[in-house]
UniProtKB/TrEMBL annotation:
Pfam families: Com_YlbF. It comes from the Bacteria. PANTHER family: REGULATORY PROTEIN YLBF, REGULATORY PROTEIN YLBF-RELATED. Keywords: Coiled coil. This is YlbF family regulator. The keyword Coiled coil applies.
Amino acid sequence: MSVSEVQTMDMAAVLMNAYELGDMINQSVEVSDYLYWKQRVNNSPSVQELVRLLAKKKELFEETQRFGHFHPNYHSAKDEVKAVEEQLEQFEEVARFKQAEKNLDDMLHQMSEMIAFSVSDTIKVPSNDPNPKRGCGGGGKCGCGG
């Protein structure tokens, strides 16, 4: 057997394991909760009405951002977006969906780290965390390990 044939077989095994892992993730409690609460959010007329209102308010705010704080409606547009977001967060469906989304994201990030770090501990794994735990990733000479 040639080297390329062995590599092809190895890659096929890796891909099969990846598909199995994907199936296991799809059968997890985290995915189940996420899909359940996503459906509840999508099926709630009250929530969907606020989602549409939020989209309109965000669009108005985007228009003011071209001029930033100097636009006469900047602060009021920003406050209106924040007010609708706060209204949305009062719904159990929305709060639970956000928590389920965070739990799923955390699980996927943890798995990504485990896979990446099993190859090399210097591989950077993207995260939604605004406070990275491993270096800045800026590529500079800060010496933070990023």
